[in-house]
Specification:
Elements: H1 5-15, E1 37-41, E2 44-47, E3 52-55, H2 70-81, H3 91-103, E4 109-113, H4 116-131, E5 135-139, E6 152-153, E7 163-164, H5 171-174, E8 177-180, H6 185-195, E9 199-205, H7 220-230, E10 234-238, H8 250-259, E11 265-268, E12 279-283, H9 285-288, H10 307-319, H11 322-345, E13 350-355, E14 358-363, H12 365-370, H13 375-378, H14 386-395, E15 398-399, H15 416-435
Parallel strand pairs: 3-15, 5-8, 5-9, 9-10, 10-11
Antiparallel strand pairs: 1-2, 2-3, 4-12, 6-7, 11-12, 13-14
Helix pairs in contact: 2-10, 3-10, 6-7, 11-15, 14-15
The protein binds 4'-deoxy-4'-aminopyridoxal-5'-phosphate.
Length: 436
């Protein structure tokens, strides 16, 4: 049978920019033709040609329980039978908000939206509305969705305003943002010393995983809390990726409770919706009450709190018990260790970086020697070694994220059989990386 993917991709590109609904899916940085997926179950995805892959993308994070968990699917089917969308309050969204609050002690109230981008966009507007200030501080290499003010790149000096990170972002929008190197408390102190009274919020990934996995240095997030509090700015912890994935209360549950820092606002998505379009902004009640209709900060959504999405989220959180997290942690440890060992055996300079059960592989001498603590360091990798590594894994039936700058996602459904297939594929992929 001829491979149907090239023809499908050509057809897709004729009607969809790049043939994809989100850029990274186009295989731009690894080359080749993306697989069109027909179905997924547990740790596996199956393409339209019937080939099955062990999936290490898991929809970029949501699939904590594995694909198509029967109880989650049943909950969505039952909800669908009752109606797809009402545009009115539902009991399920109240229950889900209560479940989020019960898990994450930093959350008093929750506003549901449909995407992580909306959650961080709302956080930015709310922070500005609450403080009467315009400036947002973000860190280079952190991704918070395609919000104008957060698609920004560092300007020429430390406390200078950012430049647009995309065509179409007005310079005036980027100029409301200051971009600081990650894990650099001294740089942030300098920014606050100069502009502290103008800063509405510092927005940070709880543990960055969008420049590869770059854990916060011990005390870094706590230092953000201290500096923002000293200057009357808010701390927004973006847990869209880490929330309900690295533990029952996300990264904050792993680190923040012990370190004694509490963010003002948190954003969630991905696992929260169990694979359906659902995200949320949570945090201090006095801040959340500033949102419409109780407050002056406008925010709304036709499909917000959609009943199918809240059904999937509720079922997912109910199932995500300590045993699930233990299984994901263990699977991640085995695969991360094996990836490191395979590269080691082939003499490929690398470093495996971890944040809870999230990990990614960094390639190159600099990463191997110094580790990666910032975006500047993340960019100094042997990126040319990743495409052959990726394609060798794909050919062996393992679907990695099609970019070096992404975490590898495990799930509670990655059982021994799935993990065996990953471990069997790694040595050949490491050989391909070594030969590049
Ligand atoms: N924040 C973080 C930390 C993310 O990883 C992402 C998505 N990868 C977003 C926000 C944006 O979420 P969405 O793609 O649902 O808009």
């Amino acid at each position: 049978m001829t491979d149907p993917m090239p023809e499908l991709f050509a057809r897709a590109r004729a009607v969809i920019p790049g043939g994809v609904s989100s850029p990274v899916r186009a295989y731009g940085s690894v080359g080749g033709t993306p697989r069109f997926i027909a179905s997924a179950r547990g740790p596996y995805v199956t393409d339209v040609a019937g080939r099955e892959y062990v999936d290490l993308v898991m929809s970029w994070g949501p699939g904590l329980l594995g694909h198509a968990h029967p109880e989650v699917v049943a909950a969505v089917q039952a909800a669908a039978a009752r109606g797809l969308s009402f545009g009115a309050p539902t009991v399920a969204e109240v229950e889900l908000a209560e479940a989020v609050r019960a898990r994450v002690g930093a959350v008093e109230e929750v506003r549901f939206v449909s995407t992580g981008t909306e959650a961080t966009m709302t956080a930015v507007r709310l922070a500005r509305g609450a403080t009467g200030r315009d400036l947002i501080v973000k860190f280079a290499g952190c991704y918070h969705g395609h919000v104008d003010a957060l698609l920004a790149e560092a300007g020429s000096g430390l406390a200078t305003f950012a430049l647009p990170g995309s065509a179409g972002v007005p310079a005036a929008s980027a100029a409301t943002t200051i971009v600081v190197p990650y894990n650099d408390v001294a740089a942030l102190e300098a920014v606050f010393a100069e502009r502290g009274h103008e800063i509405a919020a510092v927005v940070t990934e709880a543990a960055p995983a969008n420049m590869g996995v770059v854990p916060p240095a011990p005390g870094f997030n706590a230092a953000l809390r201290r500096l923002t509090a000293e200057h009357g700015a808010l701390l927004v912890l973006d847990e869209v990726l880490t929330g309900f994935r690295v533990g029952p209360a996300g990264w904050w549950g792993l680190e923040g409770v012990a370190d004694g820092y509490t963010p003002d606002l948190l954003t969630f998505g991905k696992v929260l919706g169990g694979g359906m379009p659902l995200a949320a902004l949570g945090g201090r009640a006095d801040l959340l009450e500033l949102l419409a209709p109780t407050g002056p900060v406008y925010q709304a959504g036709t499909l917000s709190g959609n009943p199918l999405a809240t059904a999937a989220g509720l079922a997912t959180l109910r199932l995500a018990d300590t045993d699930v997290y233990a299984r994901v942690d263990a699977a991640a440890r085995v695969v991360a260790d094996a990836a490191g060992a395979a590269l080691e055996a082939q003499g490929v300079p690398h470093r495996v970086q971890r944040a809870g059960n999230l990990f990614s592989v960094m390639l190159g001498e600099a990463a191997a020697r110094d580790g990666v603590a910032s975006y500047a360091q993340a960019q100094r990798q042997d990126v040319f070694r990743y495409p052959p590594f990726f394609h060798a894994m794909l050919d062996a039936g393992v679907a990695l994220p099609p970019s070096l700058y992404e975490a590898w996602f495990l799930s509670a459904a990655h059982d021994d059989a799935a993990i065996e297939r990953i471990l069997a594929a790694l040595p050949g992929a490491a050989r391909a990386a070594a030969a590049a």
